[in-house]
Specification:
Response regulatory domain-containing protein; eight-stranded mixed β-sheet; disordered N terminus; five-stranded parallel β-sheet; Rossmann fold; ParA/MinD_ATPase; 18 helices; ATP binding; alpha/beta; about 450 residues
């Protein structure tokens, strides 16, 4: 559970690929192609600037844009992109000689290919090829990269799930809090007496009591939904350390910081909320947010992100593309259904694939109108679950500062939620990779020229 090393076991680590390019369309294509293997973080800038960003983001592979395509700026000289990619490759060969470099371009453009060859990149992705061929290239590069130093601590590969509320008020934050809490309890096999013992160790308790460390490091909740702080409220927990501060401390985000700065509910569930001043989120770049969620995978088995009501579409889309699963939370109201249609259009515009999404129908009651399968069929999104409407039980628990899990363990809402949590936890442990065959890109290039 130490901070990620340069290259980790490809069987258990979600990789970070840094794509150095000003072409947004190229980055979207790569994100779609490589999402099965890792997260593509895109940065544009001069080599001196990118050197610092590479140090901050700690990617496993750097992708360089040798396409030679113009960005459309009037003052851009011909082949400026190839020249900059070459300069960056030369700089990285000096300062990070073990960092794998992959060129991105087109095999029909000889000048870009030749420049990449002279720059000494490890492989080449042809953007006129299929997503599967691009994925095979990065897998081949990773497989041929020396592993981490002997004795390095093994890294976990936590499952990352994003919950998107169709609109504010559909119960997305409530679901996220219950999902996270139940996941934490199932992960550690928590019992009431253990939770009570852990609660005594919270601030203000007897100083001789110690927090049960066995409860930590299993599940984290990114409480980023609006209204802000609802997750903390439902969990009856306070936090002085926000998601924005975690991003600012990305370079020193290690096990010690996780256990000391990040707030934990009595069960051991870690919570990273929005900052008190929501304006602080404007300084959080999407690439840094992705780097943080990837770093969290090394410390937690399951990360749940509540993005219900979050108003930055580009930020939301970047986390959605990086997630293992995306749950669209909606109820049977007309407003929620209309908002769901709008959300799906926004996600499609941001190159989010429909088959990456799942529908969760919250507060469901067949007597309310449209059936669950009709809604799923209408929007062509697979129905993951229906959660029953339990307003009295839910409100009673909330007024006591508790979750339904604590006040009515056998409630139909909890029974409907349990198989979802078990499914996530079993998927986190499942993970296998097939043997990959290698074939050199240089031979393919020489065969064409």
């Amino acid at each position: 559970m130490n901070a990620p090393t340069r290259i980790l076991d490809t069987m258990t680590e979600l990789h970070r690929f840094l794509f150095c390019s000003a072409h947004a369309g190229h980055g979207q294509w790569l994100s779609a192609a490589l999402r099965e293997e890792g997260v593509v973080l895109q940065e544009a800038g001069r080599p001196a600037q990118l050197q610092q960003r590479i140090g901050d983001l700690d990617p496993q592979v750097v992708l360089l844009d040798f396409s030679g395509e113009s960005t459309g700026h009037a003052d851009e000289p011909p082949d400026a992109g190839i020249a900059q990619a070459t300069e960056l490759a030369q700089m990285l060969k000096r300062v990070a000689p073990k960092l794998p470099l992959v060129a991105v371009g087109s095999m029909v453009r000889a000048d870009g290919m030749k420049a990449a060859l002279r720059a000494g990149v490890h492989d080449f992705i042809d953007m006129h090829s299929t997503h599967e061929e691009a994925l095979e290239v990065v897998r081949r590069v990773i497989d041929h990269t020396p592993p981490a130093a002997p004795g390095a601590a093994p890294q976990r590969h936590g499952r990352f799930v994003v919950l998107l509320g169709a609109r504010i008020g559909v119960g997305c934050s409530t679901l996220a809090a219950h999902l996270s809490q139940l996941g934490q309890e199932l992960s550690v096999g928590a019992h009431p007496e253990r939770a009570e013992r852990a609660a005594k160790a919270k601030p203000g308790a007897n100083k001789d009591d110690k927090f049960d460390a066995s409860l930590l490091g299993h599940v984290a909740l990114l409480d980023l939904g609006l209204p802000a702080g609802d997750g903390l409220l439902y969990l009856n927990t306070q936090s002085q350390f926000s998601f924005a501060e975690a991003v600012q401390n990305l370079r020193r985000f290690d096990e010690t910081l996780v256990h000391t700065a990040v707030s934990h509910a009595p069960s051991g569930l870690a919570v990273l909320p929005l900052p008190l001043d929501l304006g602080d989120m404007r300084s959080v770049a999407a690439a840094d947010a992705l780097a943080l969620t990837d770093r969290l995978r090394a410390f937690f088995n399951l990360i749940v992100a509540d993005l219900g009501g979050f108003s930055n579409p580009a930020f939301v889309a970047s986390l959605v593309r990086a997630a293992d699963e995306v749950w669209l939370v909606v109820d049977q109201s007309v407003g929620a259904i209309v908002s769901l249609a709008s959300m799906l259009r926004d996600l499609e515009e941001k190159s989010v694939e429909r088959n990456h999404l799942h529908l969760v129908l919250n507060r469901y009651d067949p007597r309310y109108g449209m059936a669950a399968d009709q809604i799923a069929k209408r929007f062509d999104v697979p129905l993951l679950a229906t959660l029953p409407d339990r307003p009295l039980t839910m409100l009673s628990a909330t007024n006591q500062g508790k979750l339904i899990i604590d006040t009515a363990r056998g409630d139909p809402y909890v029974r409907a939620l349990q198989p979802l949590v078990e499914r996530l936890l079993s998927a986190q442990h499942a993970g296998a990779a097939s043997q990959r065959q290698s074939s050199g890109w240089l031979g393919r290039f020489m065969g064409k020229h």
